[in-house]
Design a protein that fits this description.
heterodimer; A: alpha+beta; Rieske Iron-sulfur Protein; B: mainly alpha; 9 helices; Di-haem_cyt_TM (chain B)
Chain lengths: 169, 224
Amino acid sequence: MSEKKNNQVSRRQFLNYTLTGVGGFMGAAMVSPMVGMAVDPLLQAEGSSDFQYVMDVSEITQEPQRKSFTVPQEDGWYESESEQTAWIYRTENDEILALSPVCTHLGCTVDWESGDHDNEFFCPCHNGRYDRMGVNIADTPPTAPLPAYEYRVEEGKLYLGKAQPRGGA
Amino acid sequence: MLQKLYDWVDERLDITPIWRDIADHEVPEHVNPAHHFSAFVYCFGGLTFFVTVIQVLSGMFLTMYYVPDIENAFASVEYLQSQVAHGQIVRGMHHWGASVVIVMIFLHTLRVFFQGAYKKPRELNWVVGVLLFFVMFGLGFTGYLLPWDNKAFFATQVGLEIAESVPVIGTDIKTLLAGDPEIVGAQTLTRFFAIHVFFLPAALFGLMAAHFIMIRRQGISGPL
């Protein structure tokens, strides 16, 4: 090295840069597929909600009826049937309403007109109450209405999808 | 015979200073309960380590029988608990030790906090200690699910819902932990097992090494 040039990269610097670069690349190549594996559940497309037959529309009354139905469930490699329950009835506007019985307070199971709670859904765990439309009654523990199942009517048969939250009140 | 073997190795690798460094390290008087009984508060860190060693050893042996599969997990635990020689004792050690280690680490943290032992120059060691605390909690949380009984299942359900209540990223955190946005099932169990047995212990060992190297470097904080 007879003459000094400006911006000359020294041998040591060059080796530092290349080794760091190559090392970083190799490290990234090793780690990135592993990280990909770990975050796979976030990348999975959300399962489209299948609708399940629950009951005939003609059987739906103004009085809420408790109906159970099974939904096929896919948990990775494990397939099973999950049992779900809905309170199904016609509202005063003659619309069909299928409510999830899972209390929005802490997840206990609500019951229709249990105890002496006429025309109400009642949760025995912490005295949570919901009116006929499944809307939580003020000054009781629940903070949101009962979730309602998406539904579809085909040829006089009622099919239920996923229970959707109905917002806090 | 043993002495000869030791000398043979020591001659080549000079291992005496390694253990001498620990064995000859003097415990300061204000830390020694033999001098002042109230110094027992300084034992909690060491007790945390002691129970951690029990947890690691008993856990290693439990995995000889345990399977992280929802069909067989409970049966494998029941089998090792009721049929395997001393299985009940080893699982008991792991079960009760899990609680004891949390109590000890908590007492140790309280001691360091109320003595102000975290102050300069020991701030970094405090930070590492807090990370250790989180790792311990993670170990407790993930280990709780593994027996796959009702208590385990619903405790995890609740824990995951707490994680879900984090603003904005809560749902992603839950999915990442449970392996599924809604189900606590097969994928949750394998994930929790992997985290409990590989990921968190690896973090724990690294942090413990840092914790101990730092305390030896800086020495224990002086008397109040």
